[in-house]
Amino acid sequence: MRPMKILKNKKIIVILFIFSGFFYSFSQYTTITVTIPSSSDAQIRSGSNRNYGNCDYMWVGEYGVYRSLVYFDLSSIPSNATITNAYVTLTAISGSNSGNRDISMYRITSDWVEGGGCDQTGSVNWNSRMSGQNWSSSGGDYSSVISTTTVYGTYYVPYTWDLTQTAQYWHNGIYTNYGVIFIQPNENHYKVFATKEHTNSDYHPFITISYSIPTASPGGIASQLRFWVKANEGVTITSGAVSQWNDQSGNNRHLYQNTSSNRPTRLENGQNFNPTVRFNASNTQFFQRNSNFNIFAGSYSIYLVGYNTSGQRSFITVNESGGSSIASGIHIEANDPNTMRFLHRYPLSTGGGDNLVLSTDLNNSSGNVMSFYRNTNTKHKFILNGIDNYSLSPNSSQFSNNEVTDLTVGQLGSENNRYLNGEIAEIIIYNRDNESDRLRIESYLALKYGISLNNGIGVNYVASNNTTFWNRSTNSGYNHDVFGIGRDDQSALHQKQSQTTESDPFFTIYHLNSDSDPLPTTNELNTSTIPVNRSFLVFGNNDGDITQWFRYPETPVSIISRVERIWKVQKTGTINNVTLTVDTSDLPANTGTLPIYLLVSSTPDMTNAEYVPMTLSGSIWRVAYNFSTNTYISFGYGFVSQPMRHGKAVINGELIPYK
């Protein structure tokens, strides 16, 4: 056979520090071409129950009397690939005459089994697609024609058919891949092609596919990316602890800890179903010490996702090799659980510089997004949860090359104190400052970790191509607790389940292969695939009451009690297989045994809302729903009732007048 050939739920703080040098960029896509041999191929003959699955030939022609089926297994194509070209190749080895014949390729719409016979009774055949299961229509189940190729009277040469669009649809899950069928419907005579059983492997059927895969970077920002670690990739676990944390920027600046007693651990569901690295406030830390870490000359950016629960604790320290961060370098710490501190000291010999204690009332039990950037010697700016409230002029100079080469994570440099008591999910370092890039990276981090930017007022959440997937202005009034699911290949983002990490999450949303699938414990264990890149499903609410039920007779035919809070939905791209769950403990009291409903409306007053019943499994209410953009949802309980002639309805045993 022809082998494949390559041709070519704790709350967390998101901290962003942006501080520019020269600019460079590179392609965010890599193009790969592969050839994949057929996994199954067989001819079928009109009216016959004979199987030809093990023959070294397959016929096509004679007014459709002979048809040939071919299947290619495309599961090796990466899930984030975009197929740019796909061509099926068959080799003609003979025919009934030397004339030219047009042969068309169709997409098969039902599964089939090749069989092991050669002109023997069995399946697949004209009538049955596998043992005990017939085609819907004799001669095979297939869609409209995909492409047509003229096969000439020249033999032992390859002929190709274009399958590009269908292959991409297979890959996206829009169609199920059952292979293709070749038919010559309108002409006499036939052509014969080699199968995978042919003695000469050069004649075997194959498909050639070219696809592009993104070179991922945070927010799709690849320029000057120098360092990137994240807890969901590149983590080496040794004896239950993390011994190495690999750099995803491509620069191989890996973090390591060789002393087993000093190693942190990984929490699989540390933040919004994503893992985090846990530091225990005693002696756990990572080190990265080599001359390759001199990335802080000029302006620079540091993004850090993490949190601290108690005391004055260090997130990261960068200083001269073997030196003390108190004297020099860069130091980022929680001055206490609710205050952020940033230290930039230069020159190294004196330890002078900027010492910023930011009294920002950080909350160590709910998510915060902090942004601080330095632009050479002109400014410092600090942004908390998308609010630009803090800035000053820096006093210290920028670093020179090779002056800060040590990186320590979870400890204050070489000093044995201020060990972090908390978790870190992601660290990103650039050599430049760009405020528009900051928004793209913050959007990536916020959606991934369930953190609401500028909670209550909102910001525009933007994808890697700078398109908006949550619009602050359009969704005015609904910018509380913004969260959602989405896929953005250029950010390596594939968040398939989510809930807000603010104080009252209320419900969880997740994408699954089947509506009946339970909620996986982590995003990594969710085996579904959001089919289209840069697709998002995002929710924000009006901060209404969720502690009690209110009676809202909003339509003349239905009455239901619901919570005051209303969520607005913004949908971008294609996300359909979605399930929503609510834990009974998060609902207001006194529902008794009455059913819970998801309310969906096209208007914010919930007029003419659709009442979708939820089902109870244990303590979890769940419902599958295909959400549309710019719709409004809420939750209610009771019985949907028709009005009586006296203008009242019976709800929960009471006569309720309509308003």
Helix content: under 10%
CATH architectural grouping of the largest domain: Sandwich
Query: Which CATH C-level class of the largest domain is it?
Result: Mainly Beta
**What is the gyration radius calculated from CA atoms?**
31 Å
Low-confidence stretches: 1-15, 17-28, 322-327, 642-659
The number of strands is 52
Please indicate the percent range of residues in DSSP E strands (runs of 2 or more).
35-45%
Question: What fold name stands as the CATH topology of the largest domain?
Answer: Jelly Rolls
Largest sheet: 9 strands, mixed
Shape: globular
Whole-number count of domains = 3
Q: Based on helices, strands and strand pairing, what is the structural class? A: mainly beta
- What is the mean predicted local confidence, pLDDT? 82
* Total of helices: 2
Distance between the termini: 74 Å
Question: Could you describe the 3D structure shown?
Answer:
The chain is mostly beta strands and 659 residues long. The protein has 3 domains: 30-214, no CATH class; 219-437, Jelly Rolls, CATH 2.60.120.200; 452-657, Chondroitinase Ac, Chain A, domain 3 (Sandwich), CATH 2.60.220. The chain contains 2 helices and 52 strands. Strands 2, 18, 22, 23, 25, 30, 31, 32 and 34 form a 9-stranded mixed β-sheet that branches. Strands 37, 38, 41, 42, 43, 44, 46, 47 and 50 form a 9-stranded antiparallel β-sheet that branches. A hairpin with a 3-residue loop joins strand 30 and strand 31 (379-384). It starts with a strand and ends with a strand. Mean pLDDT is 82; it is low at 1-15, 17-28, 322-327 and 642-659.
